[in-house]
């Protein structure tokens, strides 16, 4: 027997956190009865589990995909405004997958998509401190004082940021390329941090999540993760879930 939210996550319905929200919202049935209590134990083989009236498949193979997200796409499964979503770029993947975390509309780069709810939970929960690496083209030439503010933590409207790892890469035509590493996942965080020190972000690209690197994957293209890459991510997942 396993907890219902874990079964939903393993089946690729949503992350564990989102699965909990589905349960609390009364959208999940077990053997024809609505279940809203978190932690309810079920047998994923013997019990009939439904979400929004659709049966939850048991034993769906796990899919792990890296996408080089272009600018101009939202990181959601669907968009009420009719904008392009990252799912438009992986239409030929037969399994139901979903994005792990988010990149904003104007940000490009590495985005992981999967149906592995436990892994998604491990990589996105704020307290797990999984490092993300960005390349940021900022307006102007940040001085050492501005860089040190980023490294020490910046006060934003939702509180102080944790210290970031910041490296000046090069200057060009009145602008500067920075490498910024953070382990938080606040909305538009890198952009807001740079705004706070007086250097607006002109272009932003995520190049790594933990030990997973974008490399030379072309913009708008995706590929399956290698066995070695999956193993490294599962090591992170194990450490996180052991602490949970």
UniProtKB/TrEMBL annotation:
Enzyme class: isomerase
Annotated transmembrane regions: none
Any one GO molecular function term: RNA binding
Pfam families found in the cross-reference section: PseudoU_synth_2 (PF00849), S4 (PF01479)
The entry's keywords: Isomerase, RNA-binding
InterPro entries in UniProt: PsdUridine_s_RsuA/RluB/E/F_cat, PsdUridine_synth_cat_dom_sf, PsdUridine_synth_RsuA/RluA, PsdUridine_synth_RsuA/RluB/E/F, PsdUridine_synth_RsuA/RluB_CS, RsuA_PseudoU_synthase, S4_RNA-bd, S4_RNA-bd_sf
Entry's EC annotation: 5.4.99.-
Superkingdom per UniProt: Bacteria
One biological process term in Gene Ontology: enzyme-directed rRNA pseudouridine synthesis
GO cellular component: cytosol
Residues annotated as domain RNA-binding S4: 2-61
Family: Belongs to the pseudouridine synthase RsuA family.
Protein name according to UniProt: Pseudouridine synthase
Source organism of this protein record: Calderihabitans maritimus
